[in-house]
Each structure stands twice: as C-alpha cells, then as structure tokens.
Amino acid sequence: MALLELQNLKKYFATQKAVDDISLHVEQGQIFGLLGPNGAGKTTLIRMITGIFYPDEGSILFDGKKFDPIKDVGKIGYMPEERGLYKKMKIGEQAMYLAQLKGLSHSEAQSKIKKWFARFEMDSWWNKKVEDLSKGMGQKLQFVTTVLHEPKLIILDEPFSGLDPVNSNLIKDEIFNLSRNGATIIFSTHRMEQVEEICNHIALVNKGQKILDGTVKQVKQDYKENLYSIGLNRSLIEVSELAPFTLAGTREDSLIIKIKDGHTPNEVLRFVLDQGLSIHAFNEILPSLNDIFIKLVEGTPTARQFQPVQA
Q1: 132 and 257 assigned to the same domain
Q2: 61 and 132 share a domain?
Q3: Please, what's the b/e burial string for 27-60 (b: 16 or more CB within 10 A of its CB; e: otherwise)?
C-alpha cells in the first residue's frame, strides 16, 4: 500500500520549471532514496510533500487521501539539511518545545525525549545550549526531534552530515528500526554508497524531471554491462576471435572480461576450462549507483577502475 503518491507535480518559479511533471509512488515501510544533483528539484519536491510549497499542477495523496498540509503535517517528520534549531535554547527545552509543537503532551514528550536521549547517549546534554553543539551533535539532536512524535512519513535530508562513523551507524540502525516498525522514510543524499546500503527503492531527478525510478537491485541490473571478474591459476589466457568474450582489464588478481552479445557466462567458463585453466573465482560486476548517477546526469560513460591488459 502506498503511503505517499505524487501525481504529475509541477512547480514554477518565474520562467524556471523547478519540478516538471514528476510522479512517485512510495510504499508504506519503504526506505526511498530521492537522488539528484544540486538544483535538480529535490528540495522543491520535499517542500511540496511537507506542505511548505503548493504545487502549481498535479496532486499529492497521503495515506490514501488528498494531502491536507494542515491536518497531515503532524504525521510527517522532516529533518532538513540546514540546522533548524534555536541556538540560544537549552537542548532539553528545544526537544520539549518541538515535541509539543507536534502535538505531544508535556508528559508524553518528556518520556519520549528521555528514551531517545538515553539511546543516543545524550543524557548529559539536557542543559547545554544548542549553539555549543558540534555539527555532528546537532545532527543527532535534529534526528531525535524529527522522529519523537512517531510520524508515519520521515524525510531525512543528508542525515549523516558531520557524523563520525560510530554515530553514522547509530543513525543508520535507527532508520532500519523505524522502517521495520512501519514508518516510511524518504532519504535524500549525495552519498551513493549510503543509498546502496540503506535504500530499497530510488528515484533520480535532474533538471526538474524524473529520469530513473525503481528498486536498487533492478536499477543495477538494468544498467549492467556484461562485465565479469574471473580469477585464474595464471594471468595469461589466449583469447581468439572465437572467444565468447573480450578482455577489458585487470583488478587485483583477476581478469575483467566483457561477454559478447548473444553469449552466456556458461560459454565463458567452458572456453576457459577448455584451455586447461583452473578457475578459482567468477563474479558478475554490477555498476555502482554512483556510476549510474554520473552516466545519467552527465551523459558520460561509467568510470571503471580497471588496469589495462598488458600485451
């Protein structure tokens, strides 16, 4: 079931089309990666989803009904890339204030804040001022205030910015926990390796238009290039014109091959074995999301870190 549906959304600023006829379908419990270069329209799209902007055309369905910014905003948690905290407030007071803005009573808010502060080892922060926090500490506080009220939809814009590896893993684990407990998460970032690790579905926007939409697994399959790594008992291999593959390079102790159109991996293995070689590894090389991102946004071939085959 879809928690969020965007239907042919358009948003204009003067003569610029910030969002140009974008439709998206976000399932309940999904971790959805919203990707794109700077200026692609991601922020404008998020601001329409959160009710900050109204679309010029198109519609938004939230939880099966037409999105009502006034009624539905309490079911959304939004963590912007920019720190949205009051610098002079104490951290405990800040968390309490934002929780009550989202509709929690004082006692509910206090209970939930204490639980999250303990989980994130923030107990000793209560009376510190926001302005005294490092960027990473501020990110942890913003994450907590985003999810305190248990929203159905959580939007995280660069949530790992400024975090060390330990705290990044802490936030990542909580994202998985929230998803398992039914929350739907839209995750926006420029870090493609985080997208591959966290998201199960992605959409890529560029110049206001959607240019890619699918599961991470399917997208990587769609853009694969028939490349394989093959580990042999010796580095030399005779490749005739009749071989079902060409040599593309080397990587560590393996050869990189490209299977010719109309041929299969089984034919490759048979060809190599017929030469009396022993195979100790054979793996398909799928493109990274970073490769695909660059290829689609810049229109350039995917960059492959292979060493050329020596003649």
Answers
A1: no
A2: yes
A3: eebbbbbbbbbeebbbbbbbbbbbbebebeebeb
